[in-house]
Design brief:
Layout: E1 20-28, H1 30-34, H2 40-69, E2 75-78, H3 82-96, E3 100-104, H4 106-113, H5 123-132, E4 137-138, E5 141-145, E6 150-151, E7 154-158, E8 164-169, E9 176-180, E10 185-189, E11 200-212, E12 219-223
Parallel strand pairs: 2-12, 3-5
Antiparallel strand pairs: 1-11, 3-8, 4-5, 6-7, 8-12, 9-11, 10-11
Length: 224
């Protein structure tokens, strides 16, 4: 018979990401351009580089802030041991139903590499460690390096904590969402007769937003 209690699966929920305008603008004096003292194309390239650096910093800030806010059994603090690391990996893998990868800066991942039993390392892994300083795997789990960066205008002040290890499920879902709303707005003046002061100028404006949206569990190991 068909008299069975049924239920409808939820359609999920829609979450919006707040966006805002991000702009950068450069200019150059007409005489310095025509005399070759300045190359305006270099100025324009620097503008793009600055925007790219800003986007990366925004992503890093979102990532670090989310890891700091994590609490409960999915966050472990203390000395790093293979047993505790595997336990956290098993917890995330069981909760999500996916294998996991271990992410961190080179310094953080080197602590994981140090846990490897040398007697079980193959010649290929030894060669990899000699060339890169790291191993690509830890007991069946992929190690992914997060490039380290400095805080803006603070050489030596790292943005990513070298003690943090992220235990992330290996899914196709991107947990950091970067949104570009609309097209990039570009304007460029390379005619001395347009601006009253005869300067060349270039401007780029982008409406963007960034947020962490993770619909599955992940773990953080803060190594003391």
């Amino acid at each position: 018979h068909h008299d069975i209690v049924r239920q409808r699966l939820g359609a999920g929920k829609v979450t919006s990401i707040a966006t805002y305008w991000c702009a950068v603008k450069v200019y150059s004096e007409f005489e310095r351009v025509v005399t070759g003292a300045e190359d305006f194309a270099t100025f324009v390239n620097k503008m793009y580089e600055a925007y790219d650096r800003y986007v990366k910093n925004t992503i890093y800030d979102a990532m670090v802030g989310y890891a700091t806010a994590l609490t409960g059994q999915f966050k472990k603090t203390g000395s790093l041991t293979a047993e505790n690391l595997n336990a956290l990996c098993d917890l995330v893998s069981t909760a999500t139903g996916y294998p996991v990868m271990i992410m961190g800066t080179r310094t953080a991942l080197s602590k994981v590499t140090a846990l490897q039993n040398a007697s079980y390392i193959s010649d290929t892994m030894k060669d990899e460690h000699m060339r890169t300083g790291l191993l690509g795997m830890f007991e069946g789990k992929q190690l992914i390096e997060i490039p380290q960066v400095f805080e803006k205008n603070k050489i030596g002040s790292y943005k990513i904590d070298n003690t943090l290890l992220w235990i992330m499920p290996m899914t196709d879902v991107k947990w950091i969402k970067l949104v570009n709303e609309g097209d990039v707005q570009l304007s460029q003046i390379m005619d001395k007769d347009i601006n009253v002061d005869m300067t060349y100028s270039a401007e780029m404006q982008v409406k963007l937003g960034c947020a962490v949206m993770l619909n599955s569990a992940f773990g953080v190991y803060d190594v003391e």
